[in-house]
Amino acid sequence: MKTCTQCILPETFPGIKFNDKGVCNHCLSFKGLTILEEQKKEYEEKFLALIEQRRNHGSYDCLMAYSGGKDSTYTLQVLKEHYGLRVLALTLDNGFVSDIAFSNMRSVTDKLGIDHIIFKPRFDLMKQIFRRASEEDIYSKKTLERASTICTSCISFVKFITLKMAIEKRIPFIGYGWSPGQAPIQSSIMKTNPSLIKMTQKIVYDPLYKIAGDDIKPYFLEERHFEEKDAFPYNIHPLAFLEYNEDKIYARLKEL
Asked: Which residues of 10-26 are buried (b: 16+ CB within 10 A; e: fewer)?
């Protein structure tokens, strides 16, 4: 079924029409579309300027949080081939990643010529946390507005392991493969703030510490990391300011 490349309305929607780029008449009539395109251009130019300032200052230019899904895989390709960055991919193995997913990730990183680290926390620890998370809401209601208790626990490991590695390796950018709707233009390029990160970590760290104690310490930032303010990277979401076309994405992924 044909869907709009901008808003994904299907061809069965009453009165819908598509232009040659697959954009529907409702998107084309939206007055904010021109402004949105101008914002995309503005943020990409900002990213290009940052690349020129920070490229080649260390072993890698960008650390990619790589799940192996279509968005993170396409983002990985964009960072390497479109922007020419030296990328290090990092995958968290939470014990539930399939063999097929690992095979696909290996194929992609090999073909793109990208170093890939698979970080696997102790499975007994992950099981302990996931079991408790399945039984009760260990986080505040505000924290759980965006994701379930289990997902929040898992993504917290991803976020802070990735950030910790970027700080220690002095990697200036962390890339995420979120879809445009998940990452608004305004948050597509953000300098991580140590004070804010410290508060954010505490929100998830304290409940996890009550479950597993000191065993969770290796996966989170320590006080010494917060003292290295200049080492905190930018978070980037390139798919938020690049043209996002699912057909193009799937076509490129088939090549990989």
From this structure: eeeeeeeebeeeebbee
Residue entry with tokens 């302990």: 128
pTM here? 0.84
Contacts of 76 (CB under 8 A, 6+ apart): 64, 66, 87, 89, 108, 109, 112, 114, 175, 177
More confident residue, 199 or 249: 199
Report d(CA 148, CA 154) in Å as an integer.
10
42-69 residue pLDDT tens: 999 999 999 999 999 899 999 999 999 9
What DSSP line would sit under the chain, residue for residue? --B-TTT--BTTSTT--B-TTS-BHHHHT-THHHHHHHHHHHHHHHHHHHHHHHTTSSS-SEEEE--SSHHHHHHHHIIIIIS---EEEEEE--S---HHHHHHHHHHHHHHT-EEEEE---HHHHHHHHHHHHHS--S-TTGGGSS-HHHHHHHHHHHHHHHHHHHHHT-SEEE----TTTS-GGGSEEEPPHHHHHHHHHHHHHHHHHHHGGGGGGGS--HHHHT-GGGPPEEE-GGGTS---HHHHHHHHHH-
Q: Are strands 173-175 and 115-119 parallel, antiparallel or unpaired?
A: unpaired
